[in-house]
Amino acid sequence: MTTNESVVGSGALSTGVVITGGASGIGLATARALAQAGRPVALWDINQAKAVSEAARIADEFGCAAVGVGVDLSDPSLYAAALRTTRSALTDIGGLVHAAGVVDTGSLDGVTVDVWDLGINTHLRPLILLIKELLPDFEANPGSAIVGIASINATLGNAVNPVYSAAKGGMLSMVRSLADRLGPAGIRINCVSPGQILTPMLQPTVDALPAGAFERRILLGRLGHPDEVARAVRFLLSAEASYITAAELVVDGGNISSQRM
Ligand SMILES: NC(=O)c1ccc[n+]([C@@H]2O[C@H](COP(=O)([O-])OP(=O)(O)OC[C@H]3O[C@@H](n4cnc5c(N)ncnc54)[C@H](O)[C@@H]3O)[C@@H](O)[C@H]2O)c1
To answer: Can you tell me where the transmembrane regions are (predicted)?
Structure first.
């Protein structure tokens, strides 16, 4: 059987990508990695000032279109305005990365309705609502693809963050369902599950634990860098990943698979 180049693609895609949580950590590293490959980017973040300044830095450094958009993703009534700003700044939108996140640290004892709502409405609900909003853009642009940033906590049991773990586990199964819905249109959707990546989210935990607490378990013996996750996301959004959908790509330096004590 031969493959159809117009379907599988082999060249670089040049459509724009919306990156939630784009002002910091993994989202920012992803926006930079995509811009470096020539893809216009929209950095959506609750921290509007940082989204705007990082987008300006990206446009300056890589010479591509980049826009920073202030939006609280837990409030869907704000999406329409953010989409208007994005569509007027980027010619075409052919990608979405949902990296915005918060983490609960209070275990079962700290769970309240507000903690539950914040976790689910930051990690899980925006992914499906944004895909629904962006579907016409994706359908109009061959090669469109989506990446949800899940976590190894979707699989590992950690007493500290039950809401976070539920949201990330939900993301894995929701992505498989959406892959079925989107597949006939040629739109791919996957998850990337990072392990411990040194970002502003993880830093306080690293500081609070004895030195080497995480590293001891990880087969590569070190924490990850946001760029190492960003490159995996960029791959999944590219034509190089044309036959990959409904998958979880674990980027954890060998953590889930470790039996080290
Ligand atoms: N760092 C890790 O070790 C690690 C591991 C596994 C998964 N992750 C996931 O990676 C993603 C990125 O995390 P990170 O480590 O880069 O953290 P980070 O704190 O550096 O970045 C998260 C970004 O999300 C933004 N954000 C939070 N709530 C928002 C909201 N309601 N609306 C819009 N923006 C919002 C923050 O302002 C911030 O810029 C998260 O989904 C996180 O769960 C991180």
So the answer is: none
